[in-house]
User: Fold these one by one.
Assistant:
Number 1:
Amino acid sequence: MTAATIPARQRDINRAKVCDDNFIEFVRGWREHAPARPRAEAPILPGSACSAADFVDLFESQLISRHLDLMARVLRVQNKVFYTIGSSGHEGNAMVARLTRDTDPAFLHYRSGGFMAERFRKLPGMDPVMDSALSFAASAEDPASGGRHKVWGSKPLWVLPQTSTIASHLPKALGTAIAIEQARRIGHALPIPDDSIAICSFGDASSNHATAQTAFNTAAWTAYQKLPAPVLFVCEDNGIGISVKTPSGWIARNFAQRPDLDYFYADGLDLAAGYGQVQAAVEHCRRSRRPTFLHLRTTRIMGHAGTDFEIEWRALEELISVESTDPLLRSAWIAMASGLMSPDEVLERYEATRRRCFAAAEEADRRPKIGSLAEVMRPLAPYTPEAVKAEAERADYAARRLEVFGGEARLPEKQPPRHLAIQINQALHDLFAKYPEALLFGEDVAQKGGVYTVTKGLNKTFGGKRVFNTLLDETMILGLAQGFANMGMLPLPEIQYLAYFHNACDQIRGEACSLQFFSNDQYRNPMVMRIASLGYQKGFGGHFHNDNSITALRDIPGLVVGCPSRGDDAATMLRTLTALAKVDGRVCAFLEPIALYMTKDLYEAGDGAWQTAFPAPGEAMPLGEGRVYAPEAGDGNDLVILTFGNGVPMSLRAARELQRRHGWSIRVVDLRWLAPLNEAFIAGQARSARRVLVVDEGRRSAGVGEGILTALVEAGLGALPTRRVVGADTYTPLAGAALLVLPGEAEIVAAAEQLTD
Ligand SMILES: Cc1ncc(C[n+]2csc(CCOP(=O)(O)OP(=O)(O)O)c2C)c(N)n1
Ligand SMILES: [Mg+2]
């Protein structure tokens, strides 16, 4: 075919219309004599694993998916629909849904209309068309996200909504598969059957992403050790990613021969051929519990999205050739060639589905939208203070505690005051006694007990099934955490250094923290992420072991960030954080200041003043509550120092010096909670002060200090003499030069002295 011979209809810029017309024209033109109608249980075509009954359902799911796409294209321009990334060409993924269960957790590619329509059949009384229409229309009644985003998601159908970030869902899908198996090993009751598998679909271009590659690698790493990881990776290969073609044959070349990632191919363009192939992959995954890679052949018609006018950048001949592989044409052919349906019957179903989709969309358009900021944010960060307090203070595990600590006399609260690292270690033992579903994992955390021995003994006491080393990849550590959380466990992932959190930040920023938002709080992935953090390690490490940037954590919606400066606070904060995770499903970060891990003294060598007693169970710290260090004399109003972390002992020493020099009465305030910042508390502390100093060891730009100053100004305290002592906007150098970039005591004293009241 050359451009000159291409009929006018085929040159239409509106490819959705072309594909629509192609279907109708193809079916209308059908002239063959129909054979006898196959029985429901008979193969749809000779030798096919797909029965006529299977085919009828699958074909309908394909039609629903297609007409949702066509509807979206039409109604987008009328502002009734707000999303046009479609599933056209991928409708064969309905086979994956049919051959798996509605209790197999699914993490889906955005082209999953066919899958969803088919999975909806698994539960009675559900309507894929209306539910999808509400989602397309961003209606507040959208059962998946409450109108916050167009996502494929469903609570009853175990479809966890995904973000638009490609490949970001693979680590948590694998994590969920591993969690399914881990549950049995720790005696945790799963919310789904024990032989469930996790399903994860994605595109061919996405398979190259680092986040995808770490999931494939970790799956293979797991299987290589003969550990089960029943994940079904479904690579929907349409040969292209937006406008970039995947080299022909690349997916098979890259995945067919990977040891410990079992490769299956299926023709997703042909239900009769593909069904048995998909079945083989699903059965293999479920039976062998091994990571399985299903290479599903698809095509992409109607462009990447409604805004993608392929005709402008792609040869028309090529477009037409791609459109000729439309799987719906193939399904129509199968329906008619098998004698299952006459052309009229096919067209009737086609048009009836169109009417159903448009009617649903028009109805969805009349349903309410989200109308207030409060409603937008409602599921983001639920907080029920009373229930959290009760859970944090719950101490009904005394017998187990005694067992864990080895008797009454060895209980941590019966020991003399100790430093931060020991008290975190004791608090973790304590939490593990309290929560049998708690898991701790990360790099070097098991036998070694972490780089700073903070987790020492946990592996021995609670065993390798609950406290274990992962492979070296932070993205995967956080993906595992989400997986365990999805299966109802309480993950405490450890990130070895703050710099390496930044390496994998998207798993928290884009994924974990967004789940409650995008699922209207139907799904939660609670966790407490411990991160060895911040600077001032004496003579050690340089930047990456002393990273002081909290900025990347502070603005993650919904994330709770706590930072203790001493052992007793660490213990009570950890109780509150785990309670926040358990009760409200919150994602929490616990920044452990490395330089304070072993600090015992405050004012003089040997004074032991930075050691604290272990708080007995029953004590917890409310979210947002700071600690106020009372002055040695007076009301503390000559100067108030607002700080956290390493800044606390430094400020206490500086305060003593300032008092000695000037006789000032000074209050040092440890904020302890860095996100959300307790603005009312900050203002309350500053209101009566004559001077305010903010000591922030983080960086000048976008750090906690900026938040504190903003809180002061917005509380009307902008006229107070205020200064900030803060880290420089630089990487941290090695050795003694590190102290040049970080706030020091002399600087705190000097800054305070410059404040005039
Ligand atoms: C991390 C990330 N980078 C870039 C994008 C923008 N983007 C969205 S879809 C896409 C192409 C994906 O192609 P493929 O994985 O083959 O899926 P297909 O759309 O072809 O089904 C790109 C680059 C994104 N969503 N996420
Ligand atoms: Mg693709």
Number 2:
Amino acid sequence: MKRPALFPAFIIALLFTACGNRSRPPVAPPAEDSRMPAFRAAASRLPPATASSLESAIHGNEDRFFGLIEAAEAESLAAGGFLVLVDKNNPLPASFEPSDLVSLNDYPLSVSRKDLRLRKAIMAAVLELNEAAKNDGVSLWFSSAYRSYAYQESLFARNSSQMGESEASRVSARAGTSQHQLGTAIDFGSIDDSFASTKAGLWMAANAHRFGFSLSFPQGMEEVTGYVWESWHYRYITKPGTELEKDFFGGVQQYLIEFLAAYRALR
Ligand SMILES: [Zn+2]
């Protein structure tokens, strides 16, 4: 007599299960990351192909991407701006001069001239870079560093008189548009194409990013950067910055800095 009594209970349980399934609400699609609208708006300032490969690169890596941006921006902000957009369309004011310039003569570095200065805020990274090169048997020669607006003005005038204004603007910056005015850009070695194949040039190309230094004007990117390839010119953009540049922006500093300027303004 016990067995039939169990039967209705089993059926009731089945019905509950079935009803439960039928009444369960449809699974909602995962919520869009709240950082994406600003991301898309900033990315839309980049060339379409670059924006779309950037979006693919961050897909599934959103936390790492936005975490690196936060880290880079925090370091930059604390130091008074390592990630400022300076290019042919975005000049610095003539009066802009970093307040923490120090002479490279006071540091254990090899300099090509005695009047070189950089921002104190990047000297720890500079020394780390120099030490790592030395440990690998490579000597880095610091050939040009901070340049004032006035100095850049005279340099551009000299280049213009020698090669004409149009050619001069491919190889040198007009006053206000040089990264050197930031005090965070360095020219190494011979300051010409022969640097690329030297031991120092090869070492920098392979390792500079590990210390937060980025090649500003890569080969074949003149349409993007406005300048011919400068294998000797590096700018400090923080370590998270070089990680972003390498892993998400195809190794192109200009795209990263342009993106950051737009993203910063949208937040
Ligand atoms: Zn330079």
